[in-house]
Amino acid sequence: MQFESVRQRKLADLIKKNVSLIIDRKLKDPRKGFITITQAKISRDLRIVSLYYTVLGNEEQRKASQQALESAKNFIRAELAPQLKLRYIPELRFFYDDSLDYSEHIEKLLKKIKQNKEEKKNNNLID
């Protein structure tokens, strides 16, 4: 089991905040859509940052946003460099965060179960 040091956590949070601002304010790619950085994890050697994001929209918009992020990696990294004051600026890796999609799916299932129970209860009262 890998534990994060305080430095790793603070640096990951700082990177998450700054990358979000860079994407929102400085990235001019029309493909980006509405991207939200949900989580950042940094390797123990501080060389690689995994950034998890969500996109408002459908599958096509998600793919377009992924392409925009992939093509803007170096730009984002260059914009991030003066803000971090590190000797080595970590490599950025973007991953789609499907946890929100999964939670939405579970929510729909729970509503459907609740609706079925209410229908059964109403049918029993009528009979």
Overview of this protein structure:
The chain is an alpha+beta fold and 127 residues long. It is 57% helix and 19% strand. The protein contains four helices and three strands; from the N terminus they run αββααβα. The chain has a three-stranded mixed sheet. Helix 1 (6-25) crosses helix 3. The protein is elongated. 18% of the residues are buried.
Strand order of the largest sheet: 1-2-3
CATH A-level architecture of the largest domain: 2-Layer Sandwich
Supply the number of structural domains. Answer: 2
What is the helix/strand order?
HEEHHEH
Rounded Rg: 20 Å
Shape: elongated
Counting DSSP E segments of at least 2 residues, the number of strands comes to 3
Helix content: 55-70%
* Largest sheet descriptor: 3 strands, mixed
Strand content: 15-25%
CATH class of the largest domain: Alpha Beta
* CATH third-tier fold name of the largest domain: GMP Synthetase, Chain A, domain 3
CATH superfamily of the largest domain: K homology (KH) domain
Mean pLDDT: 89
Span between N and C termini? 57 Å
**Secondary structure tally, helices:** 4
Question: Which tags fit this structure?
Answer:
single chain; alpha+beta; GMP Synthetase, Chain A, domain 3; 3-stranded mixed β-sheet; 3 strands
Q: Strands, helices and their partners?
A:
Elements: H1 6-25, E1 34-42, E2 48-56, H2 59-71, H3 73-84, E3 91-96, H4 99-126
Parallel strand pairs: 2-3
Antiparallel strand pairs: 1-2
Helix pairs in contact: 1-3
Describe what is shown at a glance.
Helix content is 57%, strand content 19%.
